[in-house]
Write a structure and sequence with these properties.
0% strand, 60% helix
Length: 119
């Protein structure tokens, strides 16, 4: 037995149907709109409630499934930051090397760098 797939409506479609329903003035016009679009009155009622409550995100389909793992998100962010800092360190070391070579070419002596214990 094949089960029917649940229909999902975009926010733009819902807004368009609500505008059309609001413009209906004659008796039976809303029923004709619903039949033409293949909708139920409960759809219209629910979408009107969402619009009245200001739930604009409620008019668009919500992502389904599990939420992302916060640790994995943090790990990815830390890896990006680590990569960015490595690139900055590489650039700083390049600038220092250029300064050393320039000072040697000009015959300038640089003050000795203090040993920070990392090397």
């Amino acid at each position: 037995m094949v089960q029917a797939k649940r229909r999902q409506y975009s926010a733009a479609y819902k807004q368009r149907i609500l505008v059309e329903a609001d413009q209906c003035s004659d008796p039976g016009e809303i029923g004709a709109l619903l039949r033409r679009e293949g909708l139920y009155s409960s759809h219209l009622a629910r979408w009107r409630q969402m619009r009245a409550a200001g739930e604009l995100q409620g008019l668009s389909p919500q992502p389904r499934g599990r939420k992302g793992d916060p640790q994995a998100t943090e790990l990815a962010q830390l890896r990006r930051e680590n990569e960015r800092l490595k690139q900055r360190l590489e650039q700083a070391e390049l600038i220092i090397d250029v300064q050393k070579k320039l000072s040697q070419m000009l015959g300038l002596t640089l003050p000795p760098q203090p040993d920070d214990g990392n090397t």
